[in-house]
Every structure is written in C-alpha cells, then in structure tokens.
Design brief:
This protein is of the alpha+beta class. It has 6 helices and 6 strands; from the N terminus they run H-H-H-H-E-E-H-E-E-E-E-H. A two-stranded antiparallel ribbon has the order 1-2. The longest helix is centred in the N-terminal third of the chain and has 20 residues. The chain is elongated. 15% of the residues are buried.
Length: 194
C-alpha cells in the first residue's frame, strides 16, 4: 500500500513524491533537505517584506516605530515570529512551523475582538491624600502592595474594541522555491533508481 501524499501548492511535487513512495527507499534525508528549502523560502518572505509585497504598515504604526525603515513583522527586539520558524521532517513529511499563537492571524489576516474590561489601579498619595507625581511629569505614581498611603481607582472600558490585521502571508512558497524542491526530488529519484 502506498502512502497518501498531500502537497499544498504544486501538483508536480505531489506526483514526484508519490513516485518516491513507491521506490521504497528511506526518504528522511530528502525530507530534511526539503524542509530546509522550505524554511529558506519562508525566511525570504520576511526579508523581502512579502513576496508579493505585504500590505504596508498603518501610518500610526510607522510613526510609533520611528519611521518606515523597520521591516514589517521584523521590528528589532520583537521579531520573535521570524526566529520561531523551525523546519522538521520525518521519513514521509517535510514542514516548516512556528509555535507562536499569533502566527495564523499575521499570515491569514482577520479581526481580533476584545471584550469590555474593567480593573482597579493603586496610586500613591501623600499624607493629605494628594496623588504623588512622577519626577518632572504629571503622571501619577503606581503603588506597590506594600505602600500604605494609596488611592484605589476603578476604570472601565465598557464598549470593548476590535483590531483588524491585514493578511501578510509568510507561510507560502514561491515558484523559485518549488523549482528547488522539484530539483531536489528529481536528484533523489535519480539516485534511488540506481
């Protein structure tokens, strides 16, 4: 019985892998090579800002980041999604995955809804009950649990809100990646047939 081969994106690769399955040779080394090719393709998507180009950042985000020079999904110090990409393989599969729960919404886009929230904040006060301010500003000082002179204030966001994230597909392979994959499989099949 030949295994079921599922490939997303390229029928020629699916056909080649089905042929490989009938050869009967251990394909784990090939699958390791394919997972590395796939990882390289996904990383290129990040480095190029999308292939094709992703939806640009919102002007407010560009301003907050200090200019348009920061690549999308690669903000210095917070490019955890890029660094979480990991290839894996076995004798019958090759894949690239991430353990970041927000990866799907970044890849596919969508709307995140937040429920209304409320809470309590503890602020430091002086002996007369006046709020203490941070040095040189009008911002109040937060109080630790150990502070005795505090003012507790409740806040509420009664409406809730939502954020729409545009699709920025990074878990996709381009034709150049598929060419490399087909070449690696052809070479492997040629060696397996010897």
């Amino acid at each position: 019985m030949t295994p079921d081969i599922r490939i997303i994106g390229d029928e020629a690769v699916a056909s080649m892998l089905q042929r490989l399955a009938t050869v009967g040779k251990d394909a784990a080394p090939l699958m390791g090579n394919l997972s590395e090719i796939m990882l390289s393709g996904v990383q290129k998507n990040f480095l190029a800002g999308g292939r094709p180009a992703w939806v640009p950042l919102a002007p407010i985000t560009v301003k907050r980041r200090g200019g348009a020079a920061t690549p999308i999904l690669r903000q210095p110090g917070s490019d955890q999604l890029y660094h979480s990409l990991a290839p894996s393989h076995g004798s019958s599969f090759a894949q690239v995955s991430t353990n970041k729960p927000y990866a799907r919404i970044q890849n596919d886009g969508g709307t995140i809804s937040f429920a209304p929230r409320s809470g309590t904040v503890r602020l430091r006060t002086d002996r007369k009950g006046n709020l203490l301010r941070q040095d040189g500003s009008n911002l109040a000082r937060f109080a630790k649990g150990s502070h005795k002179r505090v003012s507790e204030r409740r806040w509420t966001n009664s409406t809730g809100w939502s954020v729409t994230i545009p699709a920025r597909p990074f878990m996709v392979l381009q034709e150049s990646d598929w060419v490399q994959i087909r070449g690696a499989i052809s070479n492997w099949l040629g060696e397996a047939a010897k």
